[in-house]
Design goal:
Layout: E1 5-10, E2 15-20, E3 38-42, H1 45-55, E4 60-66, H2 70-82, E5 85-90, E6 97-102, E7 108-112, H3 125-133, E8 135-140, H4 146-156, E9 160-163, H5 175-180, E10 183-187, H6 194-204, E11 209-213, E12 219-223, E13 226-230, H7 245-258, H8 263-277, H9 290-301
Parallel strand pairs: 1-4, 1-8, 2-6, 4-5, 8-9, 9-10, 10-11
Antiparallel strand pairs: 2-3, 6-7, 11-12, 12-13
């Protein structure tokens, strides 16, 4: 990487195998026939955030560990295809992978192979510091070795964001990420009281903005101490898959933030991009481009 980039995405690279199932939860049976096929493609949370940012016109670089394996080759090819800068640190355990079961209504159940990551995994200190210092913003995935990267990233003074995904508000693993980030995204799915958790994040850490996404119900936005509801945006096509919707929301929100938009407008960007993501089959790695985002935000604002 040479010169300054807009966003450095740290962690979250990997490969998913997508299986469309007749229902979720899936009842026990000896076997199922999957007429839609079983497909493996590159793209986990960091990949999708990097892709979303790039499609929106932001210069993006991705740092993570990758194995010397077919799955790692898929991740490298995805970045080459979309012009996303990639610094891949060798991972002897192999590239992270998961199996996503997707129901007819687009809901997803993910099975993560945790054998591909270890608590002691770390990025080279100098590599991390150099990449972060050359970036306007850093988005940190909660995968290892992101946790070890937080002190170095904080020392650079570069603004940070993170996505806590389906955090329950209690699991201590997520807390350092919540405390370190200036912008925190979290799913409301496992939160008994989203507002309470959001305010606690803001009070404990550095967060200027906290967003809790709530799927078809929209989202909650906490900014400047005020909690507001972000209404849902109607998807532009039938909903087929919720995979990647949160990553799309985060990417579009960050696009708005880095282009000087107020939090409420950023949240609208996120809602529009998240709705679009739900219309994209999980077997494809795709994201909304800037022209489509601006057009649909204008329509949603009428």
């Amino acid at each position: 990487m040479t010169g300054q980039v807009d966003v450095l995405v740290v962690g979250g690279a990997g490969v998913d195998t997508i299986v469309y199932v007749p229902e979720l939860p899936l009842p026990y049976a000896d076997s199922y026939s999957i007429d839609s096929g079983i497909r493996t493609r590159a793209g986990q949370t960091g990949d999708f955030v990097a892709l979303g940012l790039t499609k929106l016109g932001l210069d993006t670089h991705h740092l993570d560990v990758l194995g010397d394996d077919p799955e790692g080759d898929l991740v490298r090819a995805l970045h080459r295809e979309h012009g996303i800068g990639l610094t891949a640190i060798p991972q002897p355990a192999g590239t992270k992978r998961a199996v996503n079961l997707v129901g007819p209504d687009g809901r997803r159940l993910s099975l993560y192979d945790t054998s591909r990551a270890h608590p002691g995994d770390r990025f080279p200190e100098e590599t991390l510091r150099t990449l972060a210092a050359a970036s306007r913003h850093v988005h940190v995935a909660i995968t290892q070795p992101g946790a070890h990267a937080l002190p170095t990233l904080l020392a650079t003074g570069v603004p940070l964001s993170t996505d806590l995904h389906d955090w329950d508000g209690e699991n201590p693993y997520h807390q350092p990420f919540a405390d370190a980030a200036d912008v925190v995204f979290v799913s409301a799915a496992a939160l008994a009281d989203p507002e309470r958790t959001m305010r606690r994040i803001a009070e404990r850490g550095r967060a200027e903005v906290v967003v809790a996404t709530a799927g078809a119900e929209g989202a909650y936005l906490l900014a400047d101490g005020e909690l507001t509801r972000v209404p849902p945006v109607a998807p532009p096509a039938p909903v087929v898959d919720s995979n990647g919707a949160g990553d799309a929301f985060a990417a579009a929100f960050l696009y708005g933030r880095l282009t000087g938009e107020p939090p409420e407008r950023c949240a609208l960007f996120g809602a529009v991009a998240g709705a679009y993501a739900c219309t994209v089959p999980a077997t494809r790695a795709d994201a909304m481009d800037r022209e489509a985002l601006v057009e649909q935000v204008a329509e949603a604002s009428l």
